[in-house]
Amino acid sequence: MHRGYPVVESPETGRERLVVLGSGWGAVSVLKTLERGAYDVTVVSPDNYFIFTPLLPSATVGTVEFRSVLEGIRRITKRVGGAYVEATAVDVDLEDKYVLVEHAGAGRVWLPYDRLVVGVGAQSITHGATGLEYCHKLKTILDARSIRQHIMANFERVMLPTTSDDEKRRLLTFVVCGGGPTGCEFAAELHDLLAEDLRHYFPQSVHDMVRVVIIQSRDHILNMMDSVIGEFAEREFARRKIEVITNARVQAVTDTMLRYTTRAADGTVVEHELPQGFVLWSTGVALTPFTQLLCDRLPAQRNRRAITVDAHLRVKGVADGSVYALGDCATVEFPQLLENIGELFDSAHGADTTEISRAEFTAFVRRAAAQYPSAASHLQSLELNYDLFDTNANGSIDRSEFRRMLEFVDSKLTALPALAQVANQEGVYLGHALNATAVLHAGPLPTEDDASTTRRLRMAHAVAATPFSYHHRGTLAYLGRAAAADFGEGTTYKGSNLAAKYLWRSVYWSQQVSLRTRFLLSMDWCKELLFGRDLSKF
Ligand SMILES: Cc1cc2nc3c(=O)[nH]c(=O)nc-3n(C[C@H](O)[C@H](O)[C@H](O)COP(=O)(O)OP(=O)(O)OC[C@H]3O[C@@H](n4cnc5c(N)ncnc54)[C@H](O)[C@@H]3O)c2cc1C
């Protein structure tokens, strides 16, 4: 027993025990990268499946089936010879290295670990609004199912002879709180359902009453993407009669009403009431009860929205570096170059001067980019803008000009967005780092000669010592027979035709984690094309 709960005994295998919390993008990418036999792996998650979240909005309206966006976690853990425990992590003892897990109805047990990976995702921020119990979330398959049922239930109620016109209008007002990718993609999918299927089976008078409204707190939707994409999305939505209300804050939701405020041009706050029949709450990320508890245990954790990790994804404040966090629940604190200005400046200029020549600067950028991979592209942009930073135009960089350069680079190292590709890249990185750590932990192998051992350990050391760096490969958004992508640095794609829709689908098809889901998705999309979406409510 440990602090009132039983401890799970694990057999002695000589390998470290790795406990992975979660079965989402981050955790699964770790599991897919880990080498079999490197650790004794245990995965803990309340969901025994991985969800391909970018296609979850499609599942809410029946464009794809629920099972087509899921992959069983046991298939994934089997690859590394790991065990899966269907439970939720509720507490952690960082000193004795136990994590307390709970299975509703079966009680709590402590799982011992040598290394712990926290990939439990996040929950939506409430922004102080009340009545969120009347709102849908869109995180799990059960959420998608209950959204699908709610939409169809509203349409069926509208057709009852006893439903008044006012009630019909209310039931057919679908509100999305949050104009990020999830909210916008859900609105787009809902519009597709209305335009492509429901209009064939419900009278035009019903169709005319439908409203899809997005309420966004910022001045544009999709504000995490390039501003031209937000503006393009707003134009596309206006064409499809999806209403977008910007600079608005939701105050309260009841079972039939939504109250929000906007700010008039003279700064006065105006209150609005919107009768609604459905609300989706899809705002930014916040700590879950478990990650909040973990942060409360560590004085070094000061961020209120995520666990702070270093560039090796180690949780800040855990002295022995045995706890890692990744994905939506974590924020990476990249090393600031300005903190090392003295060392960097001295390494850049020649011994006989205190200024950096252009050739010396080029060599410096190459070295620094390897040392600070997360800052590599910004360091390279300094090279292109060398003359701009050389404010006294003497052809070389002095210390104050160098300081401005480093300030510029540091300002670009912002928090990474809560995206599947961030969680995925972090997971792949951590998987490789853990493989390397296992090699170092195991030490020389009896079957190896000295030279091979040295080479293998040196390589493992290099991998373990390399910090994480993120490479943005583009963010996609589906906008209902239109799609947009932001590849960063001002490069965007906008398409408002069927080709854009199929391009968007083909990208996600190619990113599937298994052949099975590729096959199922292909079938779903063919079915939808030939027979339309299934409108049954079950
Ligand atoms: C509807 C939707 C659409 C999206 N579309 C896109 C998109 O198009 N492109 C994109 O890049 N990103 C998209 N995202 C964001 C992306 O899904 C997230 O950034 C990503 O899922 C984060 O991965 P994660 O592993 O951190 O968390 P998650 O994928 O959320 O996984 C968290 C896991 O932890 C488990 N868990 C939770 N609490 C505990 C606990 N206490 N103990 C153990 N396990 C626990 C959960 O069951 C889950 O398995 C979308 C998100 C949603 C919800």
Automatic annotation (TrEMBL):
The keyword Flavoprotein applies. It is found in: Mitochondrion inner membrane. PANTHER family: NADH DEHYDROGENASE, NADH DEHYDROGENASE (UBIQUINONE)-RELATED. GO terms for cellular component: mitochondrial inner membrane. It is a peripheral membrane protein. This is EF-hand domain-containing protein. Gene3D superfamilies: 3.50.50.100. Pfam families: NDH2_C, Pyr_redox_2. It comes from the Eukaryota. The keyword Transferase does not apply. Residues 377-412 form the EF-hand domain. Belongs to the NADH dehydrogenase family. Keywords: Calcium, FAD, Flavoprotein, NAD, Oxidoreductase, Transit peptide. The lineage of its organism: Eukaryota, Fungi, Fungi incertae sedis, Zoopagomycota, Kickxellomycotina. GO terms for molecular function: calcium ion binding; NADH dehydrogenase activity. InterPro entries: EF-hand-dom_pair, EF_Hand_1_Ca_BS, EF_hand_dom, FAD/NAD-bd_sf, FAD/NAD-binding_dom, NDH-2, NDH2-like_C.
